[in-house]
Amino acid sequence: MINQFQKYRVLFLCLLLGIVTFAVYWPVHNHEFVRYDDDTYVTKNPEVQSGLSQQNIKWAFTTIRGSNWHPLTWLSLMLDCRLFGVNAGALHLVNVIFHIANTVLVLLVLNRMTKRLWPSVFVAALFALHPLHVESVAWAAERKDVLSTFFWLLTMFAYVRYSERPSVIRYLITLLLFVMGLMSKPMLVTLPCVLLLLDYWPLERFQSSKKLILLLEKVPLFALSGASGVITYIAQHKGGAMAVIAFRERVANAIYSYLVYIGKMIWPSRLAVLYPYPADMIPVGKAVVYTIILVFITVLVVYYGQRHKYLLVGWFWYLGTLVPVIGIVQVGTQAMADRYTYVPLIGLFIIISFGAADVFVKIPFNKVILAVSGVMVLAACTVVTSIQLRYWKNSFVLFDHALAVIENNYVMQNNYGNVLSEQGKPEEAAKHIAEALKHIPNSPEIHVNYGNALKDLGRIDEAIEQYKFAIKLNPNMALAHYNLGVALAAQGKYDEAIEQYRNYLGPGADLSQPYEDLANALARQGKVEEAVGQYQRALAARPGSVEVLSNLGYAMAQSGKPQQAVEYYNKALEIEPNEVITHGRLALVLASLGKIDEAIEQCQIVLKARPNDAEMYNNLGILLYTKGRFDDAIESYQKAIQIDPNFVKARDNLSAAIARKQSGRK
Q1: pLDDT, tens digit (0-9, with 9 covering 90-100), for 378-391
Q2: So what's the pLDDT on residue 510?
Q3: Which domains are assigned to the chain?
């Protein structure tokens, strides 16, 4: 039995880690999407929601939505939506599966390289259960994190096999997996440096090969990293994600963040979805102290790393893999983020695990001590991870927690306000967003959100002022132009609204709603031909929209093209047979074409769904009168008057029908 366990223990340990990790993360199957990037990636992304298709695959490889180029991430989300629908629980569980796969790969790769099973197991277990990794797994938008790490670890595994027996095929497999990782998230740009570290330890290739050869074989990898870096910079610059923060502040924050991440790894408390960039710059004195501490740790690592190579590898793994997200090139408003530690902490886990094994090697009962200590650490991680998972249940809980643990969290104040707006609580929303503006008064995005809350409160003039101020801060902010157009249209200022819609519908606009809004405004002004063109553009952006199809049919009817109107109405009814407004519109256009019986049928469908529709009873009466069915017409007019006694037109029609009936009898 013991021999059998020895033979299959790696497989058994992989299964055990997988089962425990799945059990810990199982609650995410009941979690909702959150209103923070999930809208960009899933809930307001029609390409992702409609699943894999030739058109969507092309979109995935050409879009920079989300200020990133990561086509494989888009494709994986599309596949999920095709398989499970837009199901938050299912998408979260797929993230969990990737996290389990990554955990197993950490174990397999480290064990294969070091031939030391138990330290490798502990590294993998820490990776699986550490609370700092909750953000990467429990957040649907962070599919890019778990997916790119999956390819990161597969690339490492392929590289280890290549190092054992070099061949062109094994090298090309390594290269291909690396490319797939870069197409999932550009975080992999530092992987070639990590592979060089692995050459030093534990692969020990520095001793058996010339260092120049090791560098040369990484050249294609570095070239791909460089290309990915350029693409990412362009995407983030065009997407407006680059934050304008002084270089000195960025450096100080980067050094501080290196130390804070270590602190949160040791004592993971007050974790939040976002740590905003401090409004006040880190004092020079503190920045110098942080730098001295970081340099001192590095010197110690280099000194002791001569004898314990895993110290050097683990430490520089940690420092190096954080470089793309440490904030030297600042993207977004966050000073740091838990998700950024998903790969970097592996380096520190290596130091902890292999270091503990070496420190306790000569102590009596060292295996017992290590086992008990390890179980206690992992149990503590499991408890804290389970608690942290609860905060990801929905937007309300997540943002409320972030506000509770981080002071002056203006981004979360803004997001919390948006959630309250969606819940129909505009007064509370306005208060939170106004609080955010106190801390960052020159944010065009927050001014737009404040304008939205004011608009929901009926304070349209104040909302318009907020939108105009946002445009003053950022004249190219498309959403501000769009929302301003909506507010102006609500006041009946269609000429001004149209101007704002046109400002929104510039390069990169890929949503149908503004086209439809522009068409509606044009139609109200009697510019029907122009309206038809905009409805057609809206339909191209959202082909399955019943509302757009119906409105386009109505515009066609107004422009004297009843046959085309019928075609669009029928398409809308194929998608949604119970769409009452479209049935009513179809009745009118069929009547204009002389198809009275079909028009009567459409009116009856509407009245079955809306038996208190006085206007439709009047229309039905007119059609019945045309067919010479005077008794039925009189009955319809009477029902219209019964519903609305002040319906003058129906009374006139009733009188005419009664007179015609009586004249016929004479």
Answers
A1: 999 999 999 999 99
A2: 45
A3: 10-390 (no CATH), 408-508 (1.25.40.10)
